[in-house]
Structure prediction request, 243 residues.
Amino acid sequence: MKGLCCLCVLSALMLVSIPLYSSGGEDVSQKIMDAFEAFDTEEDTREQEAGPDININYEQVKEYIRKADFYYGEARGTRRYSRSYYTKAIDLYQSVLTVDPQNDYVLYQLGSAFFDSGVNKDQAIPLLEKAVAINPNVAIYWNNLGFMHTGKSNLTRSTECYLKAIALDEFFDLPYKNAGIDFLNMGKIKTAKKYLDEFVIITKRVLEREQVEAILKNIDGYIDQEEEEEKKKKAEESKKSGK
Prediction:
């Protein structure tokens, strides 16, 4: 049991080392690049001075989303202006929701921006829960919602989310790793091994694969020890019963 505790600590460290957000079949980086290409410097300067217009119409929604995605991408890629960029992205996403409150992508992005920035972080989970309720068919929504629940130690809900992500996209690697880590911390060692093994098979993330392989070695050692102890226990019981 002592070895298992050490294993869980190692697992917790793993959560930090692997990126939360990944395309998972949806090219988020391309969205950011598209936003950059469409970005109009002069118009943006005017908007920075005036602030986001909460009375936008539907024709403006797409452009607001593109610019919000640009700011969000920049916020996650730089430290110097990250607070300012997060604020701009959040304001724009919120403006879109005033006219399109059922936009699952914007709900997802807004919740993610809150989570990443630490601003109104408690709003992140409700926003992603709403996004998956509106559109339950996007694997990355479920993975990142699961990760947020992991951070709150809501491991039953987090593993549910990861398994939904896997069901939607069997080649999306992160939910296998995330589910494996959470099952490990729930004490479900063999179930954890199943998902971590799968992560190692399908992932292209070299460093993360090596980290998970190290965890799997500890798991294998723990399982072997547990099975050996079980054999000894059965042998002693059999000896006592005279069989």
